[in-house]
Design a protein that fits this description.
With 224 residues, the chain is mostly beta strands. It is 5% helix and 46% strand.
């Protein structure tokens, strides 16, 4: 397994320097062969990063991926789906579109950093104007496991029209008021959510549909 350490691509991990470009460079390089992008020993401040096929984002227990509080660091996404829920889903910290074999893992933390931004708490501005923490769309064979996801500006972990999705052993702490869901699954097929702990300001685990394809074959078990 090839491992691409983001620090080898210029990431500082000091919690102050924006490491977006360095993390993205590691992802893009790793995607040429497939492998693991590693964050360890630091706080990595970042705007939106885009995962690719055959890439695992590994956030080590010694690392935090910390979302930028600058909304300009989250350009709007416009994935090619016809889905009513897309109106709420435009910005994200960790994003994957039309990717296969994508994994987010490790025992570290992905922190949306919304607590210090007043407009990102509650529902004073529309969902689409605030970044989700994790958003995968039109992808397949996606796993999200063991990480802690916290302080999203809106829904925390969102998967839209994903085929073969497993969310296992994650902790979500997103108790920042209305519109701050924990885990949202929007359409798709073959979904397993298990052994998760969720604290949210709104729906903790939300199954929803905004397309004619619907949501099929879902198992949720052993969650708190």
């Amino acid at each position: 397994l090839r491992v691409c350490d983001v620090k080898q691509y210029g990431a500082k991990g000091d919690g102050v320097t924006k490491d977006t470009a360095a993390i993205q460079a590691a992802i893009d390089d790793c995607a040429t062969t497939g492998g693991e992008v590693l964050l360890e020993h630091g706080v990595f401040l970042s705007g939106m990063i885009v995962l690719r096929s055959h890439v695992t984002l590994d956030v080590d227990t010694s690392a935090t991926l910390l979302g930028s509080q600058d909304i300009a660091d989250y350009p709007d996404r416009n994935p090619p789906v016809t889905n009513t829920q897309l109106a709420n889903c435009r910005k994200a910290l960790v994003y994957a579109e039309s990717a296969d074999d994508v994994h987010i893992q490790g025992h570290g933390t992905i922190d949306g950093n919304a607590t210090g931004v007043a407009a990102w708490n509650g529902d004073t501005i529309k969902e689409a104007m605030r970044p989700m923490v994790v958003f995968t769309v039109l992808s397949s064979h996606v796993t999200i496991q063991d990480v802690t996801v916290k302080n999203g500006a809106v829904w925390a972990v969102v998967n839209m029209q994903v085929q073969h999705l497993t969310i296992s052993g994650i902790t979500v702490d997103n108790n920042l008021g209305a519109t701050h869901d924990g885990i949202d699954v929007v359409d798709g097929n073959d979904v397993l959510i298990e052994n998760c702990t969720v604290a949210s300001g709104d729906d903790s685990i939300c199954l929803k549909s905004g397309s004619s394809g619907g949501l099929q074959n879902v198992t949720v078990q052993n969650c708190n």
